[in-house]
């Protein structure tokens, strides 16, 4: 359950913390008091897009922190699958927002907004105006049916999607193969030419690098010999390095018995003399043996040109060219035994089709059974919401083709007047009816366990009187097994509160701020009276509010 929500520097809120309870938590207040800010804060903690416009004070950061208490093992396992480990049965989700960036964290560890959303999907379900409008989209109906049947479906939908992907890839390969059958002879001739061209080059890995080094050396032969010659002359000519070292050795030998360091320096000079002698001898020998081979230079140049031509055509390296050779050899073999290849591919397509059909039909059977159960439970839930003499069914149709979601298409159909045919939900229901239908769906889905916290915003849109009373009773019933948080302007719903919060505006130091207050019993009656009578709160209105609260208590005792 959602234990608390801490909001700081967000829109009209300076800093507030709400401590939620089990059961039905009601948030009420006058229009514009800031009720929507609470819901917006929750959305931010769940990874929704953050904007600097949310900042109350542009010079300070906005902060939202939601603390959840996790008591059941299934939820803990689902969180662990996302690498989130509850600490002391708590998960803390927070978001800091500045003018330039936002930072989300789970249990103090920074995470992307997408991770906040994934975790939030496990912990709570927020229902608002947009969601009941989504019932106009029939694709949403199939999603809701599958959510209702998720225990029976398990990982079957994932298997269907994987099987469909394999099936589509094989069908595509088979269609392309059939299309290329008419041009295979031309393809074989081209492949033979390319294979012969690469094989004739007799390429060896690393050969190009060796040739490039040799080409560089041969093309710079004159320059290198000139530099070697000058170096040899400097080191070996009269007055060169050898003579200088010999003179130095002679001088130090005269003082060898006088200074203790002389022997050390003399040894160093002897080593240098030996190294220079070896250098002069080796360099002289190398230059004597070296000669420019014009024929070899021409061979290297021709070979490199050939390799580079193949690189331009087949790949940037010899290894890449040889890989292209292997691919062309395989392709040629495939074309040469094309009929066999086509038959094998057709066999694979048939096997993939059979597998996809089997999995899709299993999924379809589960959906058929679930649709009957969902229809039954929806009629019961809708009757509780003052839908009298209303028929509701899940209409399933089989597609004439496969999809990644199986072979089913479906929609919710409804009849609100006895004797009339069932018609698509989107063609019948009004906005207020859509709101109640979505509440019925949510309560049916919630009855199967799963998400512990349900949040309803604008559930009372377009309803009043007996229908409002029915909605309040349904919310209270759901709240007996789940934590429910509801933003409302109807006193019938607010009277059912187990915990009631008032959101109201005030002006401090010339600035408008929204405050949040948990109401005590007497304060609750006053707020119900305000919701009933507006600005004129008479004794009669207060009596009516008290009676409404007493009736709500009586109803909750019967649950």
Mean pLDDT: 86
For the record, give the distance between the C-alpha atoms at the N and C termini, rounded to a whole number.
21 Å
Instruction: Using the CA coordinates, give the radius of gyration.
Output: 42 Å
Structural class: alpha/beta
**CATH homologous superfamily label of the domain at 2-128 and 452-558:** P-loop containing nucleotide triphosphate hydrolases
In the predicted model, the low-confidence regions spanning at least 5 consecutive residues are: none
- Please work out how many helical segments DSSP would assign: 21
- Specify the biggest β-sheet: 6 strands, antiparallel
Multimeric state: single chain
Strand order in the largest sheet: 2-1-4-5-6-7
Describe the fold and architecture.
This protein is α/β, with parallel strands linked by helices. Helices cover 58% and strands 18% of the residues. The chain has 21 helices and 15 strands. Strands 2-1-4-5-6-7 form a six-stranded antiparallel sheet, with helices on one face. A six-stranded mixed sheet has the order 8-12-13-3-14-15. α7 (156-180) packs antiparallel against α15 and α17 packs parallel to α18. It is elongated, with a radius of gyration of 42 Å. The two termini are 21 Å apart.
Short structural description:
The protein is α/β, with parallel strands linked by helices and 559 residues long.
